[in-house]
Design brief:
The protein is of the alpha/beta class. It folds into two domains: 354 residues, Alpha-Beta Barrel (TIM Barrel), CATH 3.20.20; 74 residues, Immunoglobulin-like (Sandwich), CATH 2.60.40. The protein has 13 helices and 21 strands. The strands form five sheets. It has an eight-stranded parallel beta sheet. Strand 16 and strand 17 form a beta hairpin. Helix 5 packs parallel to helix 6, helix 8 packs antiparallel against helix 9 and helix 8 runs antiparallel to helix 11. The longest helix is centred in the middle third of the chain and has 18 residues.
Length: 434
């Protein structure tokens, strides 16, 4: 699967392109801004772009009006076809956000129900009772997403709804050449529909990737249907371990999920790794000491799974959830580059070139509150990741650190005799050469 061998870069287009927060009905060709960033993506060594919603919506994109028309605030279908073509020409794949659980109140079929009530041919597309009323005084009750009635839940058991959505996905593949879908609130989406979507997309493209959003609990039921899911447990565990100087937390999650014991939950699976996204605080904001930003990124890149970088976080952009969702979804004028960006770019290259980091197993070697060593080992190579949260350098001692090694961040060759020095607020990624 192509996605498992590269780094994904996530963009929230309505924010990234500086669109009005409410759909103003004016077509502006803002999505073409992405073309100006392609060299940045290549320099950053990313192999795929994950676009959050791009289709016509009422407001934030997750309230879809039309699954087959690019939101006018972003531009036209022709504009987005141009963007996807240029990304593909640069060797970068495209993943779209698939919002199939619910639509906006502006969705054409729901508007028809509002107008015609029981006489609407689309009444069966939703979970409706004409014996009640809604908070919008529609004259009927309908199911919304988790009590948010601006988000109207689709009846995915209805064959017409399923056919419409699959036809839309077919259009995305045929017209834009997309290579995968991130499934919004996949944990709530009808499983029969997910199976139909999987079969449909794999017939269109056998390496088409399906990534399900899941916030917690057991990932395995979704992994029986999808290629991957979002690893929220480790997202929280990374920043929490760093802020509390307690690597036992994240090492427990890594081992629980990917370790060698028979009870480990997701050994051999590739989950989507991330340290922030469009729904949570920026990692530069949530960390109590920004000197640890490099460690946070290194933990994401060296853990099992495939990493996803949220736009702007590669240079340390901040954003606080309490300031509203749009504060997490800004519109940078141009990409920036600093020491952190250098680190992220090298980490992406190291991940792509290391079979152990992409496919290897996981084993804890040493864990203390402010320090940690773990092993990633495949049939081809063995890599050790060492982390130090203290201000002072740490002389990391372990029997495994004996012999010839390559520092994968610098390319430097090292001969170790049972220990290695890790700088304060630093990390090492060492491949064993003998």
């Amino acid at each position: 699967m192509w996605a498992f061998d590269t780094t994904i870069y996530q963009i929230y287009p309505l924010g990234f392109c500086g669109c009005p927060h409410e759909n103003d009905g004016v077509t502006e060709h803002r999505i073409l801004k992405v073309n100006d960033w392609i060299q940045h993506f290549r320099k950053l060594n990313v192999g795929g772009i994950l676009f959050n919603p791009v289709f016509e919506s009422d407001s934030h994109g997750y309230d879809t009006r039309d699954y087959q028309k690019i939101d006018g605030r972003l531009g036209t279908n022709e504009d987005f076809r141009d963007v996807c073509g240029r990304l593909h020409d640069a060797g970068i794949r495209v993943i779209l956000d698939g919002v199939f659980n619910h639509v906006g109140r502006g969705f054409f079929a729901f508007r028809d129900v509002c107008e015609k009530k029981q006489a609407s041919k689309y009444a069966g597309w939703f979970n409706i009772s004409f014996d009640g009323n809604s908070c919008y005084n529609d004259g009927f009750w309908y199911e919304g997403w988790e009590g948010h009635f601006e988000l109207v839940k689709l009846n995915l058991k209805n064959p017409e709804v399923k056919d419409y959505l699959l036809a839309s996905v077919g259009m995305w593949i045929d017209e834009f050449g997309i290579d995968g879908i991130r499934l919004d609130v996949a944990y709530m989406v009808d499983r029969d529909f997910l199976c139909a979507l999987r079969d449909f997309t794999k017939q269109k493209k056998n390496d088409f990737v399906l990534i399900g959003e899941i916030l917690g609990g057991d990932y395995n039921p979704l992994l029986q249907v999808l290629d991957s899911v979002t690893n929220y447990e480790c997202c929280k565990g990374i920043w929490s371990s760093i802020n509390s100087k307690n690597f036992f937390e994240i090492s427990y999650s890594y081992n629980r999920q990917f370790g060698n014991e028979s009870w480990c939950l997701y050994r051999g699976r590739h989950l989507l790794s991330f340290i922030d996204n469009h729904d949570v605080e920026r990692i530069a904001t949530v960390l109590s000491d920004q000197k640890n930003l490099g460690i946070a990124n290194a933990l994401m890149f060296t853990m099992p799974g495939f990493p996803c970088v949220y736009y702007g976080s590669e240079w340390g952009i901040e954003g606080r959830k309490s300031d509203g969702d749009w504060s997490l979804r800004p519109s940078p004028e141009k990409p920036e580059w600093n020491e952190l960006t250098d680190t992220v770019a090298v980490l992406a290259k190291v991940k792509e070139e290391s079979d152990a980091l992409r496919n290897g197993g996981y084993r804890n070697v040493r864990v203390a509150n402010p320090q940690m060593i773990f092993e990633r080992k495949s049939d081809e190579e063995c890599v050790y990741a060492l982390f130090n949260l203290e201000d002072d350098a740490w002389n990391a001692e372990a029997g495994e650190l004996n012999g010839s090694f390559t520092d994968l961040m610098s390319g430097e060759k090292r001969t170790l005799t049972g220990s290695a020095e890790v700088a304060g607020h630093g990390f090492l990624i060492l491949r064993k050469d003998s």
